[in-house]
Amino acid sequence: MKKYDVGFAAAGSMMSILFFMIVNYVTSTEYLWFIYPSLALLLWPIGLYCAKQGKHNLFSILCSGLIILFLISENIIHSPVHPWSLYAIFPILWWPILIILGKRAKTMSIAWVGSISIILYYLILNILISPGYPWAIYPAFVVLWWPLSLYHALKKTFFTFSVHASLLIILFFITVNAVSSPNTIWAVYPIFCVLWWPLSMYYFVYKKRRVN
Questions:
Q1: Distance between CA atoms of 43 and 21, rounded to whole angstroms?
Q2: pLDDT, tens digit, for every residue of 112-122?
Q3: 120-128: long-range contacts at Cβ-Cβ below 8 A with a sequence spacing of 24 or more?
């Protein structure tokens, strides 16, 4: 029975998708809701096949491709004026890229290439699609944690990590404050809280050294 599992999953998913299509057409033709369960149903036989064959690279490629096609379809159907699917496509592509790279994905060079490329990608989208507000600073702040965390994890410099990470957070809040509401200096409040992180780490390291 086990060798027929993939075939059963494929047949079951196709029958279910056809059923949802018919129900969608009969009950509510003005809204194509059947595409939502169809995405999940398509992942069933794909995931089962790749798991049995140990093809993790293929699974990441097929799943990321399906998700991208789903987002593009949603974008075209519901809001063709604004290409919002572009915001998600590039980060999703990094899923199969990192899986294919394998152990090399854990290197600093890949972390820097990935973070810089994502920052530049969102910066270009910010300038071309929605230049009214510099929202690219938000994904840039998130992505910079990738090389920062990896570097200190490899070096095992946890106190230095708390210092550098706190500086990154402080710089982020100052930038957001200056861009969003320059007349109100509210960044001092989260900055004060963030400073306790390296201070507590220093106290812990200092006491540990004295005890030893």
A1: 17
A2: 999 999 999 99
A3: 121/90, 122/87, 125/86, 125/87
